[in-house]
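Task 17 of the worksheet. Students: predict the tertiary structure of the chain below and write it out as structure tokens. Keep your answer in the requested format; marks are given for formatting as well as content.
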Amino acid sequence: MKQIQRRGFLKASLIAGAAAHAPLSTWAQVKGANGDIRVGVVGVNGKGNSHVKTFHGMKGVRVVAVCDPDRSVLDARRRDFEKKKENVQTFTDIREMLKKGDVDVVVVAAPDHWHALAGVWAMQAGKDVYVEKPLTYCIWEGRKLVEAAEKYGRIAQTGSQHRSCPATNAIRPYIQGGELGKVQWGYAQVFNLRESIGKADGPLKIPDCVDYNLYAGPATDEPPVRTRLHYDWHWQWAMGTGEAGNWGAHIIDDVLNITGIKTVPKHTLAIGGRLGYDDDGETPNTLLIAYDAAEFPVMAQFRALPMKAGMNAMGHFRGIRNGCVIQCEKGYYAGGRGGGWVFDNDGKRVKQFKGDGGRAHAQNFIDAVRSRKPEDLNAPMATGHLTAVYCHTANMSYRLGRKAATADAQKQMQSSPLATERFDELVGHLKANEIDTGSNVLTLGEVIQLDAETETCTGPNAAAANALVKRQYRKPFVIPEEV
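Model answer:
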């Protein structure tokens, strides 16, 4: 694998040659009225609307264009600007925004399947980009984004906000500097209550206000079978990456960042299922992942079911519901988006690390846009790509898996004391939710063996696994081999 680090971004020749590659004006050439950085946001419902408010509220930054295939969403954003007696250009097609929008920076907050294509197109058009997490829909796309950022000399940030969190930036040198001794294992978890998305009688009737050809983009343009168009795409494979891509892109990234892991996992095994309800969702709502990634075990776990059937409360591990635990020789760190604590091995608090979830992440990006120094970025494309690989290999393992007896799944989770402990606790969680663990309820994933140099899969299931490394694109929404 081409090494996952920042070296490719530091080549001055790439920066100097950017204008020769960019078909449209770069920020250095066109800065807009009063020198403001002009932003276009793609996907402005939900998180994208938050980005509109964040970037438009920055000093010297203006959101001048918004893009969404749902015209009702565009109308809502337009009215937001009119209330402030301001104007904003609206587009349903990103290609039109890149041609006519006079933007310097593109922020991508569309569904997962659009992230990479929108990012590549924007950089080819000479724009700097901020691409939300997960950076990509599949492994192959990440390498294309890294290549595009290098080729066009663009400032390109991943929406991994925790990389700009004071707690994360303080605990990283503390752990890597050996204050607690050697790392023994790293663990990420998200216990986030999610209800069923329901079960539709047939394909969803697409609202007249939605251009579904543009909404589907690289994916199939067949209407999905679900009851709600927006957000629930997260839980179907055509456009979404499940909780592993949704929250895993933050919490798994915390483990990689804090412990200093900079290589893709050699092997990934996932065990889980969509359990507790029968709906149109396809992604697992219960998933336990073991990675062969470093000299110490790395694991992740996601749950959407409550602590017990009939309850709304969620469980926790060492006081953490959504966050990570880094166990070292002399103690451990347990923290989430708001920071955390270092404990000794008796569970006594030693030191607090206060965080803010990375509120300055967008500002970090804008600062780098102004400095034109990619090394100023807290989460460049290469960083986002590495983390996305961990998310994707977990999903790949699950998707290639088979229903198996609990005892068979348990045998596969005996690679470390941590794996055994977390699996046994998972079985208890399922029983508490009145799920019959005596039946073949769990999906035992295939082991994903990834070659670091080629970023392709090897081993007995290589053909099936590599079919998930790169998706099939629907023309004309295609990322080219040569970006």
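Marker's comment: The first strand starts at residue 37 and ends at 42. Residues 11 and 78 are 40 Å apart (CA to CA).
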